[in-house]
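#lab-general

N.A. 3:47 PM
ok so I finally got the sequence cleaned up, no stray characters, all 220 residues accounted for. can someone with queue access submit it? mine expired

B.Y. 3:52 PM
send it over

N.A. 3:53 PM
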Amino acid sequence: MEILWLKTGPLHPLDTGGKIRTFNMLRALKRQHKVTYLSLCPPDISEDVRKAAAEYCHRAAWIPWREARKGSPAFYSQLAANQLASKLPFVIRKYRSAKMAMAIHELDKLGTLDLIVCDFLTPSVNLIWPGRALKTPTLLFQHNVESLIWKRMHDNATGLKRAYLRGQWQRMRRFEFESSARFDGVVAVSEEDAAIMRKDYALKNVLGAVPTGVDCEFFA
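B.Y. 4:20 PM
back already:
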């Protein structure tokens, strides 16, 4: 198969559970399928990190993208603007990229892809354009039920932070449902997550779960 894999950053360094899970999944898929890795990429990422993508894909395409530094005036300005004027949660809105959306649709138009995989919910903000259907089947590869994470943060917060997180949690829940429902298939990280998606979101496209494996030889 020819697979287009969507992400919001390079995988190296392998310093989070999500990166490690994706890295090993892609490394296995690459043995039998042709993988194109399309991702946002900050300008200060080293060339070594970009080259390391050859470990998990046949071709990497990088879309320039810059994130406001946490704690900076620009960061707080974006938080405020998002809270006042956006229907999207901040952690989704910040990844919206017209250049990435265009790249996805240009590759889809070629008609050579067999599958588009959206890794995590975040890249999906660039996948669907109203009124423009994709030719290629789409799969959402979920690592979490994102709205549950935001609900927990809200429940444990107080004061103004709790009020802010309530809005973000509600926006995430709405976006997660609407976005997930558009995919041809959704894969969860556990059977428990798959059951939550089917029950709480009433999704009919949840295919099941792909649990995270363990490298027994490494730990031995």
